[in-house]
């Protein structure tokens, strides 16, 4: 037996012009931890609700390893998150999450991501989000994709607007005792199609993978 026999979602690959996105094995997780340890954002702006980057580099890497392993272990048909590593020219440069709860009924999924700081400003964030959007709409047959970004996170907001998202209201979160405005974004299938610029190949999305993500055939 192989890993993909027990966890079919490991068969999934998303490919764009430059990138490959996949679930990480242990070696991939170490490479991802290295990117986290080197830094993922401007230290003057915290983009995450859980401030997991506020620690020494070795601890950032350790937190990355532990969190991603727990997320993968928690995948179920009812609620799942796929923490896909982003690979550019053979190097893991960041990660792109896509997740949903009761996706067969809601027909929507949400995304989140980060890149190593050395890879910012190269269009990678847009391209990797485009990859999972193709997966959400073409692969899963969803109607909407959701995202969110703290007020002042210009790069994340720029990616959302570039890909066709529309403002979907605000939430208020408390981070380190301070209220922060979290801007919600919603992308419809129609707006995604109108702004689609990247060709994406989805590999390994078979009936077993769909069933693992809550989209199996209903029993009569």
Automatic annotation (TrEMBL):
Please provide the record's keywords in A-Z order: Transferase
Q: Where is the N-acetyltransferase domain?
A: 10-190
GO MF, one annotated term: transferase activity
Please, which domain of life does this record's source organism belong to? Bacteria
Entry keyword annotation includes Transferase: yes
Under the heading Pfam families, the entry gives: Acetyltransf_3
The yes or no answer to whether the keyword Isomerase is present is no
Q: Which InterPro entries match?
A: Acyl_CoA_acyltransferase, GNAT_dom, Ribosomal_N-acetyltransferase
Under which EC number(s) is this enzyme classified? 2.-.-.-
Its recorded name reads: GNAT family protein
